Structure formats: structure tokens, C-alpha cells
Amino acid sequence: MLRVLCGDVEALDPGLMNLIYRFRHDFFVDHLRWEACRRQDGRERDAFDGPDCLHVVGQEPAGRGAGTIVSYARLLPTTRPHLMTHLYPELLKGRSAPSGPRIYEWTRCAVAPGKRESAKGIDAVSGASFTAVAEAAEHFGLEGLLVQTHPVLVTRLMDMGWDVEALALPCTYDGSLLLPVYARLTPETVATCRRLFGLSGPVLRIPASDDTRPPSPAARPTLS
């Protein structure tokens, strides 16, 4: 199963956060060539990371490579600076994005290249990762998620049961075509994800101590 982490994870489990940052660097910098994010310490971390993030993490369960991170997604609250509004607001073309305590931004979505989908369709790791994000959103009572994605992937989000609204026309950003969207969670989203990916039940493990409220946003980060 996958798990969702919230709160000051860097203080509570610095070893795991180190694995997360290194996985993100391997994927986004070494694999996708996001050179602006390259760091000498091999850890992809930015000003938006902090105690108010939700981290949805998938790890190898057992055997050789147990504990290795194979999937990841970060959810950021929209009640403080986040990517769509404070890093590349030009995607919105002057429009406003939905925001509030029950709206988060879905960022840093990644699946280890060796685990990603093949020509035959979505693999188990990718499907479980997408479903876990929906389960996390439902658990924390979120209304929806902001997403910046390629236009062709909007249909996939809709197939997963999200109610998707485009917030602006697609535009090219740093060589990639991106479309800002708001994906509303519906009562059927989680069940649709499970059915689409052939999952028989929940894939997300949530500690019993976690309640159904998103973490309270921390102090705003300093953006350079």
C-alpha cells in the first residue's frame, strides 16, 4: 500500500524525507532534465516544501529493494504560495485560480521510470499512485486539486472520475505545452479510479492518529 505523510515529516522521519528528495531529483532532474532544479546534494527540494504539504508515497514493500520509493505526489495548500500562482502565474493568463482550505495543488507527480506504463496500458504502480491521490483528497475532505498538465492528459483525469475544468487556454512553458485545470473531487472519483485500474479496495494507508482535516498551513515560505 501507499501512505500519506503530513506534518513536520522532516523532523519526524528525516531519513524518509531524504529518500523522497533524492527520488525527486533522480526523476525530475536526471530523468526529465529539469536543470533549474539541479542541486549538488542530489536532493530536489523547493520553497514550497514544508509541514503543510501532503506527501503521497509509494515504496517497494518487500524483498530486494524494500523501502525504495517507486511513486510520489505532493499536494500543496492554496491558502499560501503555491506553484500555479507564485511560480508561473502566466499559465492563468490573468485569471484567478480556485483557492481555499479545501483546495490543494497536485504537484511533483512521479513514478519510477522502470515502473511506468507500457504500451499495454497503465501499470499497477501508476494506477495505485493516481488512486492514492484521490483517496487522500477524499480522506482529508478536499473539494478538488489544481493541476498543471499536458492537454492530452486531461482526458485521463476525466476517465479517473475527476470533474475537470480548464482555467485558461494551453500555453508553452519552458518548452512544454501546459494547461492549468481544476479537478473537482466527486463522490464517484475514488471508486472510478479503483475500477479503472482494477483495484479491489483502498491502496492508501493512513495512520490512525490522522484525522480528516488537512494540516493547518504553516508560515508562508520565502520565495527567491
TrEMBL record:
Domain of life of the source: Bacteria
The record's section on InterPro entries has: Acyl_CoA_acyltransferase (IPR016181), Autoind_synthase (IPR001690)
Q: Which keywords has UniProt assigned to this entry?
A: Autoinducer synthesis, Quorum sensing, S-adenosyl-L-methionine, Transferase
From the UniProt record, list the reaction(s) this protein catalyses. Answer: a fatty acyl-[ACP] + S-adenosyl-L-methionine = an N-acyl-L-homoserine lactone + S-methyl-5'-thioadenosine + holo-[ACP] + H(+)
Q: Name one Pfam family in it.
A: Autoind_synth
Q: Does Transferase show up as a keyword for this record?
A: yes
Enzyme Commission code(s) on record: 2.3.1.184
Which enzyme type, at the first EC level? transferase
**Similarity comment:** Belongs to the autoinducer synthase family.
> Cross-referenced PANTHER family, in alphabetical order?
ACYL-HOMOSERINE-LACTONE SYNTHASE, ISOVALERYL-HOMOSERINE LACTONE SYNTHASE
Protein name (database record): Acyl-homoserine-lactone synthase
Write down the species. Methylobacterium adhaesivum
